[in-house]
Amino acid sequence: MKNQLNWDDLRYFLHVARTNNLTQSALELKVSQSTIARRISGLEKDIKITLFTRHQTGYFLTDQAKGIFQYALAVEAKIMGFESAVDSVKDDVAGTVKLATAENMAIEVIIPALPKLYQKYPNLRLEIVTSPNTVGFLKHEVDIALRSVRPEQDNLLVRRVGKMSYSLFAHTKYLANFKKPYIKHIDQYQFITWDSVYSHLPSARWLAKHIPNAQSILATTSIATQLASVKAGLGIAVLPNLLTAHDKKLIAIKEDVFADDLWIVSYAELRSSKNIRAVIDFIVQELNEFKLIDSL
Fold first, then answer.
1. CB contact at 8 A, 96 and 144
2. Which of 2, 72, 123, 259 is placed for a possible disulfide with 94 were both Cys, Cβ 3.0 to 4.6 Å?
3. CA-to-CA distance for 274 and 85, rounded, in angstroms?
4. Cα 96–69–66 angle (5° rounding)?
């Protein structure tokens, strides 16, 4: 191999290997599809190996490329570490940090406190990705995650930062036809549940274990839609207490059914980044100040 490898070529290769989709990679990397295709073809020419099998359904790694992919991941980790080291010697906190968290955490905890973060670090910007799923780190899409499921990847820094309590909630108009104590009628209630894709989430697992015969009137894919469904009087749902604290018409028919561990996750390569440390410290401070979250 006579030509020196270009990191951008490897970056495009890694992204397409993760997405298996040229269009998606182009959108996320904010370049044209032709640019990515040209850079990948150039990389293949330089190393004299066909990296992808091109198919109508996507781009798929060849057998030879699967081994190269692991080395490319190692190169990516080294470059991330270098960028973190450069950031650590700078005096100011500046740039963009991408945070993944659940929608309810973003709305109730993170976003209301952002003015304080920006006042302290005017050159720092946060990008927030909201999803109930554990996405982000497998594809290197985010820098930090605040989540309720502990990841198992070896290259991540994982820190348990607190707990969030959940209860069984219903709206007063749904409970109008039931007498107290409401918990006595648990077998008669209809439930708002999680779509089967999210059956791994703690609230979904709790409901499956403790009320296995729960009658689902609606399955959704977010806490926000479950909360809206409860407010509409459709049925009962397992919801975080922090979402219901200011609505007197939401009744906990069974309080504190379980507490959800909260984890902050980041890359080991970014441990020295001032930007990452600033955002993590900000998140921990807000969790500790939020009364319905038990700080450690």
1. no
2. 123
3. 9
4. 150
Confidence category of residue 295, pLDDT binned at 50, 70, 90:
very low
The rounded distance, in Å, linking the Cα atoms of 24 and 244 is 37
C-alpha–C-alpha distance, residues 82 and 242, integer Å = 39
Q: Closest Cα partner for 148 from 240, 220, 227, 214?
A: 240
Instruction: Please tell me the class of the 95-161+261-295 domain.
Output: alpha beta
The reply to whether CATH 3.40.190.10 applies to domain 164-259 is yes
Looking at the DSSP assignment, which residues form a beta bridge with residue 159? Answer: 264
Confidence check: pLDDT of 135 > 60: no
pLDDT at 2 over 60: no
Supply the pLDDT for residue 253: 95
Q: Which CATH architecture has domain 7-88?
A: Orthogonal Bundle (1.10)
Burial string for 184-208 (b: 16+ CB within 10 Å, else e) reads eebeebebbbbeeebeebbbbebbe
Let me know if the fold of 95-161+261-295 is the same as that of 164-259. yes
Q: What is the pTM of this model?
A: 0.63
Q: What is the mean pLDDT of the chain?
A: 85
Domain ranges of the chain: 7-88, 95-161+261-295, 164-259
Residue 136 pLDDT greater than 80, yes or no:
no
d(C-alpha 51, C-alpha 59), whole Å: 9
What is the C-alpha to C-alpha distance for residues 90 and 207, in angstroms, rounded to an integer?
A: 49
> Which pLDDT band holds residue 291 (cuts at 50, 70, 90)?
low
